[in-house]
């Protein structure tokens, strides 16, 4: 699956993305807010992550900034099913692109995708010492549940408190309160080989 928003291309991760991915996550301020990213984060870690990217995760994407030349990897966004059966939204953005609205833009697409796939409720959370992520979630219509569960973080080396959010999603075919302007994604889209070449990251 893949999609375009106003400023982003959202597409699966490929093995050749490893160098750019390692650079994008290669700051402790980013890794410590991701549950499964180790610190320091090396290219080998990026390769291992990308090797596990399968068709079993059709709603997991890299964020690529659309530019006049080669696309630029600036983050990641996705929905995963938790052990309890709920669907959870997650995202991260490389430090040079903080505060520019990219997480909100990608998140709007994910809310629209959840609607398209018939997901009735999305969960999300952020570490308590990362309030900027909460601002993004509130812009996307999420509300705090009142729960603050502890969550493991490889980069932190210990579990840390999080703030949990939830957002109800209207069923397909209803008006609901979904965000307008997001790009709908078909349930099973294949990345065309020609476009894959066009949107391949240039090696740095």
TrEMBL record:
What keywords are annotated for this sequence in UniProt? Transferase
Q: What is this protein called?
A: Protein N-acetyltransferase, RimJ/RimL family
| Ranges of residues in domain N-acetyltransferase | 8-170
Q: Which GO terms describe its molecular function?
A: acyltransferase activity, transferring groups other than amino-acyl groups
- What PROSITE patterns does this protein's entry cite? GNAT (PS51186)
Per the record, a Pfam family?
Answer: Acetyltransf_3
**InterPro entries referenced in this protein's UniProt entry, alphabetically:** Acyl_CoA_acyltransferase, GNAT_dom, N-acetyltransferase
Q: Which domain of life is it from?
A: Bacteria
């Amino acid at each position: 699956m893949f999609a375009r928003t106003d400023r982003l291309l959202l597409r699966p991760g490929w093995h050749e993305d490893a160098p750019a991915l390692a650079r994008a996550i290669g700051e402790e301020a980013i890794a410590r807010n991701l549950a499964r990213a180790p610190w320091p984060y090396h290219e080998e870690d990026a390769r291992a992550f990308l090797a596990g990217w399968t068709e079993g995760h059709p709603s997991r994407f890299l964020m690529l900034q659309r530019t006049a030349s080669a696309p630029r990897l600036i983050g990641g966004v996705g929905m995963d099913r938790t052990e309890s059966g709920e669907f959870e939204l997650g995202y991260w953005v490389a430090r040079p692109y903080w505060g520019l609205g990219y997480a909100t833009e990608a998140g709007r697409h994910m809310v629209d995708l959840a609607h398209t796939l018939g997901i009735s409720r999305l969960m999300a959370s952020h570490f308590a010492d990362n309030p900027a992520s909460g601002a993004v979630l509130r812009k996307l219509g999420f509300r705090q549940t009142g729960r603050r569960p502890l969550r493991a973080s490889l980069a932190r080396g210990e579990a840390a408190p999080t703030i949990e959010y939830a957002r109800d999603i209207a069923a397909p075919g209803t008006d609901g309160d979904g965000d307008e302007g997001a790009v709908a994604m078909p349930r099973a889209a294949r990345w065309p080989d020609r476009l894959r070449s066009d949107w391949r990251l240039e090696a740095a």
